[in-house]
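Lecture notes, structural biology module. Today: joint structure prediction for complexes of three components.
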Amino acid sequence: MAAVAHTEHAHGDHPPVANQSSRVDARLLGIYLFIGSEIMLFGSFFTAYFFARVVVGAQAGDAWPPEPYHLPVFLALLNTIILVTSSFSMHWALQSIKRNNRQGLIAGLTLTFLLGLTFLLIQAREYTRIGFAPQDLAFSSTFFGLTGLHGAHVFVGLNLLAYALVRSVRGHYGPKAHDHLGVEIPGIYWHFVDVMWIVVYVTVYVL
Amino acid sequence: MLSIGVLAGLVTAAVAYFIPWLPDAAAEEAGTIDNVYWLATIICIVIFGIVVGVTVYSVFKFRARPDDEEDGSPIHGHTGLEIFWTAIPTALVTAISVYSGVVLVQNEQADPGRRLVEVTAEQFAWSFHYPDEEITTGELVLPVGQQVELKMTAKDVIHAFWVPEWRLKQDTVPGIFTRLLITPTKLGTFPVICTELCGLGHAVMRSRARVLDQAGFDQWVKEQKEAREGGGGGGQGKELFASAGCASCHALADASATGAVGPSLDESLQGKDAAFVKAAILDPDAEIAEGYQSGLMPKNYGDTLSEAQIDGLVEYLLQATGGG
Amino acid sequence: MIELHEHHEPEAAHHAPPGKPRGLRRLTAAGWLRVSWVAPLAFGLATGLVYGARAAMGLHPYWEFPVLIVAWTVIVPLAFLIAIGGFDYWFYWISGRPTRPEDHSGHGARSWKDYFRINTDHKVIGVQYVVTTFAFFVIAGLLAVFMRAELARPGMQFVDNNQFNGLFSEHATLMIFLFVIPAFAGLGNFVIPLMIGAPDMAFPRLNALSYWLLPVAGLMFLSAYLVPDGGAFAAGWTNYVPLAVEQPDGNLFFQMGVQWAGASSIMTALNFLVTIITMRAPGMTFWRMPLLVWANFATSTLVVVATPFVAGSQFFIMFDRVLHTNFFDFNQGGYAVGYQHIFWFYSHPAVYIMMLPGFGIISEVLAVFARKPIFGYRLMALSLMAILVLGFSVWAHHMFVAGMGPWLRIPMMATTLLIAVPTGIKVFSWLATLWEGRIHFKTPMLWAVGFISMFVIGGLSGIFLGAVPIDQHASDTYYIVAHIHYVLFGGSVFTIFAGVYHWFPKMTGRMYNERLGKLHFWTTFVAFNVTFFPMHWVGLRGMPRRVSDYDPVFGDWNMVMSIASFALGASTLIFLYNMIASWRSGPIAPANPWRALTLEWQVSSPPPIFNFDEIPQVVGSPYEYGVRGARHAVFNGSRAEVHEPEKVGH
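The predicted structure, tokenised, for the full assembly:
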């Protein structure tokens, strides 16, 4: 993009303002690329799952999950609904601050956090009751690997939401675009966590 | 420039032709693989000649004097040339690809009259089982001219089977069977080399492949069977000596074993008693013979062989080395 | 400088730098003093955590060494990074306090001490990277010299089998993760913001953090030698299962070191991508970017997409070892070859990560020292993109003999051989750049021309290996070792040397000694070829790789290669001396000693702390040598005659 020659001066002890050569905000681009690399990390875990289930499992002709294990498909569906709802509340939070509705922002973030926490707690409880351990078979190793990786990402997401919540209570966010990146970026991460769960759920529990 | 390029090409060609890069081919598959090798060599000689020719020429012809501040000719590109050096290499690599594919398919045609040998690799020994003849040995002996299917696996970690004169190589993986089809065409003795890092003893994990004529092979089979069944008592022990892969590393005249990785049993078991021999099998690192390394002999014979089997093996070894 | 500011204070008067902390506050201020007490504390905390958790869960024994190693290698580096100040600003943000406006006082290097702390200046970080990576180059090179000493004669003379296996494993690991990949990151870090007319990288604090992960990873790999039973990891840098799972505990240091090195790599790549996309000077379209920028753009994409796979691969090994999972145990439904697919899905792009920036460096050096535009600029840029894309489709050529599904070999062979086409385009274009040039053989140019011939040899041996029938013979032999070193040493390392010499004046403000530089090149070039060329032959004749001993028939050639390798090691000393002596007391360098056109040469040597007084306006291609009146960029808003070069050449 050709621009008029700027003369962005430095004053000797601070830098000139960089030219913006793209419409995309640098920090948003950064989070999208980071999410790209996280998707690839999940990819490697899905690959391990593929090897255990398709390459080895199919050859052996066994059922999947192997006898006598079962997966709590229905409960995981409830958990999916919880997480999807949290994405909606996250969206509501972001929309609120865009309209300068601070109460909505705080309420949305709080709801998202609580829903996410519920998801995590239900998952943790299921881990103890599921009837198999990571050490049992490749099936259980890949199951705990995938869901565990996802759980770790949810935990990180909850942290990000907590920081954003603290700052929203202190009134640090505003309606202008550059004044609520601290909400938007955790929001993007949270949507990623949600979408990734849907993929994990469908692959592991449904198919 | 042409002359530099041609010269470079000729030198490279001479290097390629007169130096024996590959061991003498001793299998049918090796012959076709070598054809692919020569095709690639010719193509690479031409390309290398061009690259060296242009480089050396340019380096001399276009060198600037130290005080020369002029720029070169502002040539930005040449579409025709760029198309040329995109299209030609594409054609060349496609040719190599196609020819290689043909050779691959050709080499992997299983002959219905082939012989099956089951290969098992473990840290750090080979064992070869002949299901038809029902013998297990530490070295691979084959009749010339007949295709053999090696059905291979490993017991512990990934190893790999390679005989350079046959060219073919394949990893042996625990839990799955991998396969090689080989048709030896020359008599002789060739090394069997492990080529996948498998631990401490990777460098010494070797055995032998011997290719005999049909008569010689039949004779060898007969000898192996006799050695299994009798030949001075402890018949079960003698079979175990072969199937446990001892011959890969140890020499023992009675079993026609010539392994050289560990001490020769004919020598090292002289004057020893049953307790010593048993301990040497179950706990190899307790006492290491002079000049040999620890950590190479498999330590798991206590797990893989039963007490009775080990006792039978010990009895056989003492009797075979004239001791006990 | 881009910064997060939700609570923006108006641009107030410029702040004076904060005073140095006094008394007890020195212990809590970011820096090495804080590290000195935080790191041991974290070590104790990690140990206590493991012990306490295992005791609470009733897991015996409480002192489980593998679990302890994992805890130490996660918690202690994190504590180190926090203590040295890598996260200070973010903790401040997390705690919810209003954002501080950046006072830039900590930015840049005014004394040598500034190189030993968290510094957000990309130029400082670039130098930190280059110096650190060369330290690991020397260490890894010494490991290689030990190997060659052992291999000089058949039989075992100096080390035992396990130690030898550890030597080549550490050598490769350090060279790959602590030298080649980060050295390019460091050179790029220094040069690219200048080259695109930006005051710094997009995320300077992230940049600083990604540097400090490097010594962490390096120390972690070397710490494997401290493990009492069995010592360093010895399953090769490829760490195949099941061997890796049954190896002694030192292997865990490899697994965790890869995570930290990988994280560093990904963070830098992210930074490069965002910087290149969002911070180019006005007028610098993608088609006016220097090829080094294109090359790092392609490389960074590779890093972001591929590196998580190697992280995953080592996670699985760690889980199998420490948690006793069964990703790879066939008795429990695991698939050993699956590890290789996951590992090589990263590690093949890794070799392009280790080469593409080098391609960029060579393009820069050739244009400058042949005083000619790069031939076929557009196709050069596109070929980088082609290699990037194709690079993801060839990984199984490392597994032709691994026992994977046989059908996979044919498409992988096709894509592998095809990737020679864009690479060939680059080689031919460089040759055409030399043609009709005015070539000045300064040291960087020697390395560049040497690179072309050595890389072609490596690339051609790669063609041989791409053909499955040939690979069936040559795989896992010394032919592979020859191929690797021709493309990684004759390829990547030659380009790193070219880059270091080329930008040495810019980075240090001094000129290196030209005669020593040339001596370094020629001794290296000869010793390198004598060391590695015979490996093609011994490999094809029957010498496998990763062996501590070999058939005595190869004894003579191994002796020759070993002696040459000692010479190769010695030649590096010439380089080290030249660098150190020149940096300390070499002649002062002018701003543009090479009369180059790209932006980094239009500012002083070394550049001002904030790079530019004002952002330049880019008006043309960076390679318009020989075109009268052509300008790449203008400064000061001056309306100097801007000559858009006509398309010369047909």
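Point to remember: Confidence is low (pLDDT under 50) at residues 1-17, 639-650 of chain C.
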